[in-house]
Amino acid sequence: MTWLILAFISAALLGCYDTLKKVALKDNAVIPVLFFNTFFSSLIFLPLILLSGATTMLDDSIFHVGSGGWEMHKYIVLKAILVLSSWILGYFAMKNLPLTIVGPINATRPVMVLVGALLVFGERLNGWQWAGVLMAILSYFLLRKSGKKEGIDFRHDKWIYMTIGAAILGAVSGLYDKFLMAPVGQGGVGLDRMMVQSWFTIYQCFMMAFLLVVMWLPKHHSTTPFHWSWSIIGVSVFLSAADFMYFYSLSIPDAMISVVSMVRRGSVIVSFMFGVMLFHEKNLRAKALDLALMLLGLLFLFIGSE
Fold first, then answer.
1. Cβ proximity of 128 and 296 under 8 Å
2. Residue 182: which of 111, 250, 237 has the closest Cα?
3. What span, in angstroms and rounded, lies between the C-alpha atoms of 51 and 235?
4. φ, ψ for residue 265 (rounded to 5)?
5. What whole-number distance in Å separates Cα of residue 6 and Cα of residue 51?
6. Which residues, other chains included, contact 239 with Cβ-Cβ below 8 Å and sequence gap of 6+?
7. What is the pLDDT of residue 35?
8. What DSSP state is assigned to residue 65?
9. How confident is the model at residue 81 (pLDDT cuts 50, 70, 90)?
10. Cα separation of 291 and 140, whole Å?
């Protein structure tokens, strides 16, 4: 099950990405950090686009970027808008909330993906999957109690709502990925995975450049200042690698988006550990119990999806 192994690798890389993102955002302006993340990610994929289009060097390799006209690119532009909207909400939330709060909330995405698959693709949940969904919901309410001990009111905290919004948009993006990658004969668009990842990164960079000029630059003297951090490059590298493994996994026949999404959320283990070691976050015993319940729910979802 190569696609499953790739999903686990993606999860580990994603946990490192979340941690570096927290470091990059510490006392830093969100918009320019996100712009530079998309900029450096674009620098990673731009050579692959050029080499694929102008030479035969990457032909038949896993790094070859397919080509297509607007008929295909319009789907990728929508993908870029979905992901960037999720990132903007998620970055602001990550800056203002403990990593040990954000991680478990983000781990609810597989539940949203399964519910979306139920509603959009007509899939049906079995007993194991329903048990996993209920455990994930319960862990969320327990996490609310843990947050209250740190002065975080889940009902009135705008950063919590941003985290939830980012998770919802991320789940929608995951379902959209299934549509983009699925063959035409199965109701999908049948896009090349490297074409999707490369070009949605490029489009995001242009979108963030626009937001940087229009939203941040005119007010940057009166808002949180931007300072350079080498962790910004690390964010781009780990995210690009995590997404490469993710898209590669989805491109393999018989790969299940529901299972891949669950495994990817295992990244919360990595980010939780770094939250303990690097940021010395509080109330860890209660959060660890919430996290364990969430992971048990994901295990049930995994068993039910085999």
1. no
2. 250
3. 24
4. -70, -10
5. 25
6. 13, 14, 17, 37, 41
7. 95
8. P
9. very high
10. 9
SS3 269: helix
CA torsion sign, 154 to 159 to 160 to 162? positive
Of these ranges, 35-44, 155-164, 219-228, the one predicted with the greatest mean pLDDT is 35-44
Rounded to the nearest 5 percent, the helix, strand and coil shares of the chain are 75, 0, 25
In one-letter notation, the amino acid at residue 105 is I
Structure tokens at 176: 């959209």
SS3 97: coil
Maximum distance among all alpha carbons in the chain? 59
Residues 21, 106: Cα–Cα separation, whole Å: 14
- 256, 110 in Cβ contact below 8 A? no
Judge whether 104 and 273 are in contact, CB under 8 Å.
no
Other CB atoms within a 10 A radius of the CB of residue 306 amount to 9
Give the CA distances from residue 61 to residues 45, 193, 248, 294, in Å, rounded to whole numbers and listed in that order. Answer: 14, 12, 12, 38
**How many contiguous H segments (helices) and E segments (strands) does the chain have?**
12, 0
